[in-house]
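Q: Got a minute? One more chain.
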Amino acid sequence: MNASVRTSGDESEGTPAGPAGGDGIDISRRRLLGTVGAAGATGLVIGAAGGIGIAAVVEDPDPAGSPALTTVGSTEVMFHGKHQAGITTPLQSRGHLVAFDLAPGAGRKEAAALLRRWSATAKALMAGRPATTGTDTGIALDAGPSSLTVTFGFGRTFFDRTGLTARRPAQLDPLPAFSSDVLDPKRSEGDLWVQIGADDALVAFHALRTLQKDAGDAARVRWQMNGFNRSAGATARPMTARNLMGQIDGTGNPRPTDPDFDRRIFVPQGASGAQEWMAGGSYAVFRRIRMLLDDWEKLPLDKQEKVIGRRKSDGAPLTGGTETTEPDLHKIGPDGRVVIPDNAHARISAPEQNGGAAMLRRPFSFHDGIAADGTPDAGLLFICWQADPLRGFVPVQRKLDRGDALSPFLRHEASGLFAVPGGPAEGEYVGQRLLEG
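A: Always. Here it is, folded:
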């Protein structure tokens, strides 16, 4: 039996876990024998475009006798595909972001060798196997794939370091300055960017540590940040994640089922010029956004909801309905004013208010302890994806910058813009079409 069933992906928080199977088949990270509910030795496979397939596993039981995995542990995201994993993959419970700079003297040759190593490691770890590069630490020997994704991108300076400036897309031009920026250059940008996500914190850290060791003498860590979301399987059904302000965050995201999704999020196939190697890829904007939670939590609930333009309880617009109901931006209340205030975040960021500009938000929350002034160093590792940041992130952020009621409660502390090429075909490494084209 080798058939599989494909269903559409979900941009919501995660995949609910079923009970562990009881057919006596053991599972190890090396052999990927998993259980899905009562289905026995069956593993979930998530394609790089977000689809989920159920594939039968026909291997013999692992003689080592490792314990069986639940749905959460056995879910595998495919490394190869039209797009890199980690873009439309449902949000994972744990995330790591890390930027590297090429070492002095390292150029195109060293970068290509590094991307080969990283791709080999990512492919193995995402399949639940140990790394083949000799750098595996054994941290996750008894864990499954746990929806691990590893996504690679190139910063603007990468093209200078590798002599590829002629192939640098205009979409990597520096982002403009915004009034809420207090950016730390040491925690911003970078030659290379890696996004790691998994539904098991140990699996995510294992990938981070292994990739760092894989870098060897070719690249050095510039900055690294850790994030989290609600645990996969914690709710009976996938739900849109909440941020640390308690607000449902991501309701207005475009979905893969939208007819214009690919046009908005991915660089089209057949792209020409400097964009050719980016076909099937996307541009990631990263922002470390600290939330001034002490100030925010002093606001009464009704004022918080007017700042956002949505109910805190269920994410529905203040004009009524459910979370997915389109806000009625023209509705007038009994006081003669628009129900959703003119400076509400939901109004200002709405695509119809920004010439149709859209981006796929896929963030992680962060908490890095208590600052010296006694306030929580916490907020959002904001990541958004789009085919062109000059038409996606930039116009929306400019408008938010001019009058968003939420801005006084946010501080943008780090930033980055990265070109994330399409997914590698079988036998390719990530970025091969750029580095060897």
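A: The two ends are 40 Å apart (CA to CA).
Q: Perfect, thanks.
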